[in-house]
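Hi C.,

You asked whether I'd gotten around to modeling the 464-residue construct. I have! Everything is below, sequence then structure, no commentary in between.
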Amino acid sequence: MSDSPQQAGYTVLNDRYSIQSLLGDGGMASVYRAHDKFLGREVAIKLFLANRETQDDEVRRKAELTVLAGLSHHGIVTLLDAGVHIDAKGLRHHYLVMELVEGMDLEVRLTKGPLSPRHIGEIGYDVAEALDYVHARGVVHRDIKPSNILVVDYQDDAPRARARLTDFGIALFEDGPRLTADNVTTGTAAYLSPEQARSATTDPASDIYSLGLVLLECFTGRIEFPGRQVESALARLNRDPVIPTDLAPHWVELLTAMTARDPAHRPDARELVQLLRHNVIAESSRHKLETEQEAALAEVARLEAVRRYDILDTPPDGAFDHITAIAARTFKAPIAIVSIVDEDRIWFKSHHGIEIDQITKDPGLCASAIVKGEPWVIEDARTDPRALANPLVAGEFGLQFYVGVPLTTSDGHNLGTLCVLDFEPRPVGADELATLKDLAAMVMVELELRLGSRRAAGALDPVQ
């Protein structure tokens, strides 16, 4: 776009939509972030340029409006409003007001690094659901590509990837007129189906092929049919996409079916939803198994580190007792402990304000604290979901306050914690937490010095 909104005289559209920033720029329209003053919400405005809109562009714009007005689905960006704005020069600017989707499009996301197979499956599943919906209503999108798939950020730290389909600018109804002249190819060259490349009749199977190319690109990180339009179009007429053989069999089978040159051999959108659902479940199960295996290996290495420091079941030690006493005074708490988390127990190297020297591993909050590798703060155990069912909280002991800082070795293993406990809930101050971290560091300095002394005395192999 040559003119900014301010220069062109459309800073505010029809006294309602205040233009804020440019989100994307195309040949016939630009998309802006805007504020709806009437409803007090953020929206996206697709603004068509009056001086650039050809007769074909006008047909496409009206078709997009017709298509979007009849669609309502969680996998599609929702049309909220439409109108015409007359600028200071008397030019008419048509616009569409759409739901503002926070996040980035898939094309941008792929530049940030690879996606996991599970997230690829989740994105594909959402788009397939949207296609199932539009295909059932006789609509063919015809321009499935990464930049038309929005990866939604709900800002809730959800582990699941979510996607929305947008830009129905060249969509058509199966029983409606074509929006372009005969023998003119529509869509983006790199993602055309073979039938689009031949300028043949386009049906829902074309969208399935294009989505197959998009998902393949998510795995490989490269466009399968690059180049200019003619070069790219001819390539898919002469060969099938190359599906990496190192992908899981269920992905090889699905991507091969989606990108079959014969449309009759591709799954329809309804079938694709089910196939992708199965793939997501398979990837989730594999991810869980891999995570459990990694956790088990990490725990083996951690226990080896515990043995290396040779601290379990050693006599009381004034150096550590001084540290727990300082921790208790800092927090004005009755109990402070230097704990070491063993295979099936939590052993207390130093215990200020409590007589026992170990507990079983299951109820101990220290076992949870070392997993995160960062301070574990429970200001009110009676309301914190992490501690509600803990026997130390729900039982006779009556624990209501816990702060534990991991005791981390130089090679990254958490041996246990320096923790403080109380029977009354209360907030934790930043200075208190900083002091506890410093004291935990002092515990590790002492342990490292003792380990070094044993090595120097020849009691340990130098590599241990």
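If it helps when you're writing up: The first strand starts at residue 12 and ends at 13.

Thanks,
B.
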